[in-house]
Amino acid sequence: MLERLNQAMDHIEAHLDQPIDVADLARIAVTSEYHFRRLFSALAGIPLSEYIRRRRLTVAGAEVLAGRRTLLDVAMRYGYSSGEAFARAFRAVHGVGPGEARRTGAALHAQPRMSFRLVVEGSSSMRYRIVDKDAFRVVGRKARVPLVHEGVNPAIADFIRGIGPETLGRITALSDQEPAGIVGVSDQLDPSRAEGTELDYYHGVVTRAEAPEDMDVLAVPAGAWAVFESSGPFPQALQCLWRDVFTQWFPSNPYRSRPGPEILRVSLSDDRTQADAALWIPVEGTIA
Description:
By secondary structure, the chain is α+β, with helices and mostly antiparallel strands. Helices cover about 35% and strands about 25% of the residues.
């Protein structure tokens, strides 16, 4: 898998002065577009579109300083429809406009070319299992919240505090299958997984029961799920679990993520500093 990802990175480098189709990158990596975007953002730490933009402007910056092409020629070569659009993008990355950079020989910021390799930690094992589930519903309360990569998500925390104990009790009573009890469900995430992008968050249960009229419902089709278990400090262990799934488990196992919600079941210690967690990710077998 990593070899194919690196072949996709080679394709990006060879086409920085041309339109880059994510579908082509996914075909090179022998995976789905959805999984390629998610895997890239987890491995690289930035969205794919942002990496391509930074690489283009890094190479364009070198051409600006070289002075062999006009600034408009450089702009058009790297996909900008006008000198003004190029100047705005250039300044956003380099902190200086292209004209000033050429006149003064200013120091520019570079996005290094990325390649991927597997680092074997060996300090701990990841507990997982594959589960085939029939279609089910997530029933509970829903909110649109921003994605937060580290620390407690304040929007989710405020939303949960606003659910009264009576409502929470009615939701809990609907749980009739695994994962049991109250779960946090993330759906409709932006493909980039960039911090601050929004998602639908459900605080509810997994059930086949009919939902009360005052509840929000998410219908989930049948399919396979990879279930990962972890224990550790809250919330850091949960966020590290998601990172490790995509940076360590997926590159070395014959599965890829498929569109669908992510389900997190958490049991907190009495002082709320430690957590036992189970993360459910929808998966499918990779293309042979």
